[in-house]
Structure formats: C-alpha cells, structure tokens
# Entry
Amino acid sequence: MHVIIVKNYDEVSEKAFEVMKEIVTSKPNAVLGLATGSSPIGLYQNMIKDHKDNGTSYAAVQSFNLDEYVALPRDHEQSYWTFMHENLFKGIDIKEENVHVPYGSTKEDCEAYEKAMENVSVDVQVLGIGANGHIGFNEPGTSFDEETHIVTLTEKTRQDNARFFENDMNKVPTHAITMGIATIMKAKKILMVATGENKADAVKAMIEGKPSIDCPASVLQNHSDVVVILDEAAASKLQ
Ligand code: F6R
# Structure
C-alpha cells in the first residue's frame, strides 16, 4: 500500500485528482470504478474543474459505480445514480451509455453487473471507507470471496440514513446492491480516500491490522496497487 498523508480534505482531493488525471490522460478509454459519499466529492469537483479549464475528456471513459439502493427509482433524489449525475457526470463529457450504476434486486441483476465489468476490466476503483471499515456496502463479516450481491441493510444503517428520507423509516430502503470484495479486488488499481478523525480506527485496522473480515478494507493489503490518501486526522492513529 502506498500511503500518502496530507493536511486536510482539500489536499486529499487534490492528490486523488493527480492520480485520476494521470490515468485518464494516459488512457482516454479508461474504465473508472466510482464511489458515492462525502469522501470523493472533492476529487469529482477537481475533475469537473479540470475538464472545464483544460479540456480533459471523458468521452471514451466508462464508469462502474460501487453500489445502489434496491427499489429506489433511478431518478429518486437519494439514489446513487442521482448523486453521481449531480456530483460528477453532469459536469464532464462522459456519455450516458458509458455510465453504469448497479440496479436491481435479483441474482441475475448481480451477475449481469459483474459480467459487464469483467468484459472491460476496471482500471482504477475509487473507494471511501466506513467508520467500521466497510467498503461499498460490504459490512464487517462479509466474505472476501463475494462478488456483486444484494445486502440487507442493518437497522443501524437504516436509522442513520433516515434523515435523507424525511425521517420516515418506511421510506428508507431495506436492501442495496453492491460490488463484492472480490469484485473490488479485480480492479487494476485502488484509490482510497479518507478524511476525519472518525475514520482513524478503521484506517489503522485497514493498514496495520491483520487482513480480516472484521475490517473489510483490510483486504486491500492483498492488492498489489493501492494508493491510500489520508488527511492528518484520518491518519492520526497510525504508528
Ligand atoms: C459509497 C460507498 C461507501 C462509502 C463509505 C464512506 O458508494 O460505497 O462505502 O464510501 O460509507 O462514506 P463517506 O465518504 O460519506 O464517509
């Protein structure tokens, strides 16, 4: 693992952008694995700015997102499809037909998504990390062998997310579709970004702990090309 520690969120986003820019300029038809959440928003803003200022093109790029809620309409304001369009896709020239966000609830939906990725092979997978070490919707205890699958959201996760659904638990999705850990590990390169003190324990377990399903992100120690970009707070518990 190549661990880079910088001062704050903006510097993390800048460093992550440098890695991304190198990939999309050296390979204009790169396949990008993308994540939602607060961690990569700064990276996406840098990509949009660079596209506008310098013309870096995503016209030949394909994207595959990590995860999505089950049973939310695509255009629901809380869907990850909407998140990606609002925070990245609308600001760059990626073609809609090249955008892939997993969707569906069946085994066949999962297999089709896995197959689509296998056919192209992901050049770089952007990841954030949960405070409990999750990656994608792969919570602690998930086998490292899982490919794209449907997960039942824990009560805790649903309660944490209720604020995005008018605080109405009936509106909070109960399931999600996610790339599995084995899917994530197939990417040629992993670009993990993490900031804030609440990630410090998970970051320590990911980098210094023994790889274990107790911290799903620790599997990344078994990958040959991982760049982890941290701010000082997220790195504060490292030795
Ligand atoms: C996002 C995802 C999640 C997040 C993680 C960190 O698609 O799959 O694993 O990366 O929960 O979220 P933030 O960045 O909001 O702290």
